[in-house]
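hey
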């Protein structure tokens, strides 16, 4: 069985730097979108909350109006009953019957007064709810307009970058599969621990790119020899020489152009 050909350190460094270039370009694309997706999500949640509140207020207003109709019906019924009792007074035969009818009439008058009081209370509540509905509806309209504008902005950015991002994500996966697992794990660990996501950086003017700490001349020579993987003692980033970085940038530039 033939032995699997060992990949040179230089090829590993080139592959890691290529992957860094791809992932950095993906980071750039996502930074263009910035906080827009989160802003859209926040607006959608706020609109859902306002819509729910509006539905609740409309339901309460409907209940108040139904109660007003019900109390008006009660008044009408009480008045009809009072008329009947008034007619019955003409046919009373004794004081007991007269007093009994009088009590019934007083009861109907109390029912009318109570219903009128309730009508006033429900009218006040209706007016208050109507004001609340107008206020919430105003906010809802304003937030909806804002959301539509943000969605248009996001859609415009997405239409420009979505195709490129998908192709680059595919390339990132392909390049990752060609790099040893322990190196990929180290790469992602470094990327997640640094603010700008740069895990593989070139030497620039005698310093580590991204951190700007000076690299001793002897270490620079070792990096340029591409015989072993060397990391920056300050940031933990994997270091490559400037010439290698320039060569890989030129190579990857054609890939980025094709992905657009």
């Amino acid at each position: 069985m033939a032995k699997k050909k060992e990949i040179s350190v230089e090829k590993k460094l080139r592959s890691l730097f290529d992957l860094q270039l791809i992932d950095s370009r993906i980071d750039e694309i996502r930074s263009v979108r910035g906080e827009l997706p989160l802003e859209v999500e926040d607006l959608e949640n706020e609109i859902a909350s306002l819509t729910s509140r509006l539905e609740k207020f409309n339901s309460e207003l409907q209940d108040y109006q139904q109660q007003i109709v019900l109390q008006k019906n009660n008044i009408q019924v009480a008045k009809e009953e009072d008329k009947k009792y008034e007619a019955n007074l003409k046919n009373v035969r004794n004081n007991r019957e007269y007093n009994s009818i009088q009590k019934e009439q007083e009861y109907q008058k109390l029912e009318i007064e109570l219903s009128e009081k309730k009508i006033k209370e429900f009218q006040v509540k209706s007016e208050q709810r109507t004001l609340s509905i107008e206020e919430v509806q105003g906010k809802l309209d304003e937030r909806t307009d804002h959301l539509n504008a943000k969605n248009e902005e996001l859609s415009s950015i997405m239409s420009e970058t979505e195709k490129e991002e998908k192709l680059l994500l595919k390339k990132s996966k392909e390049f990752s599969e060609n790099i040893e697992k322990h190196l990929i794990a180290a790469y992602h660990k470094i990327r997640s621990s640094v603010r700008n996501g740069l895990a593989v950086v070139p030497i620039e003017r005698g310093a580590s790119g991204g951190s700007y700490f000076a690299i001793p001349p002897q270490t620079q020579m070792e990096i340029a020899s591409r015989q072993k993987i060397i990391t920056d003692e300050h940031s933990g980033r994997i270091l490559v020489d400037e010439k290698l970085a320039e060569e890989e940038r030129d190579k990857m530039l054609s890939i980025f152009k094709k992905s657009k």
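Strands lie at 200-204, 207-208, 230-231, 238-240. Residues 9-33+180-259 form one domain.
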